[in-house]
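Task card 7
Instruction: Convert sequence to structure tokens.
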Amino acid sequence: MVVLKTSKELAKMRKAGSITAQALQVGGAAVKPGVTTGEIDRIIKSFILSKGAKPSFLGYGGFPGSACISVNDEVIHGIPGKRVIQEGDIVSIDVGAVIDGYQGDTAGTFAAGRISDEAQRLMDATCESLLAAMAVMQVGARLGDIGHAVQSYVEPQGYGVVREYVGHGIGREMHEEPEVPNYGRPGHGIRLVAGMVLAVEPMITQHGPAVKTLSDGWTVVTVDHGLAAHFENTIAITADGPVILTQP
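Output:
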């Protein structure tokens, strides 16, 4: 069942989203050669707690970090730890924060020093595909329009769209209905109505879309070891158009 949010609930989600977005900014600013993923995670956790919120991911399903930090061919769910960021790495950070009973969820991919042109193009295309998705998130549109917008933007450029992991509804719970794939047929799926809040998160690969989970049970990587990028916003559907709740 899709849970629609009232204006009061959206205000609380905007607060959670703002803290989450700021945490992503702080974490992204810490992405530099020589820094460990564990240090970035500690910075994010400290910031979220300083705002009176709690990291949504910490302990979620047993996850040991406050943020998912995924490097290069790691798509999502990278466990922060002793890995040292190297010059030229791209680092995807996925952050969630909860305050006053409501969740925020956002992600971005950041460059460590000077990166390759191909890595930059992948990051740009992934971010732009999220913008393309948001542009179609109008009342009366269909869920399939969102995924189609992502897919039709990146695939002609030769990139892959991960199928196994998707975006989702969000509110009091981190993951609510409906699922929001990054692929789809326009004009298909449930209609978008005012009060829906969706976490839309393109996960795009440099080459093929096939992924696998490592032995740690969490980290998802590309099978062909190509790079991956990940961008996400929490977005409310309103009568006036889509509103990004994860704004700093």
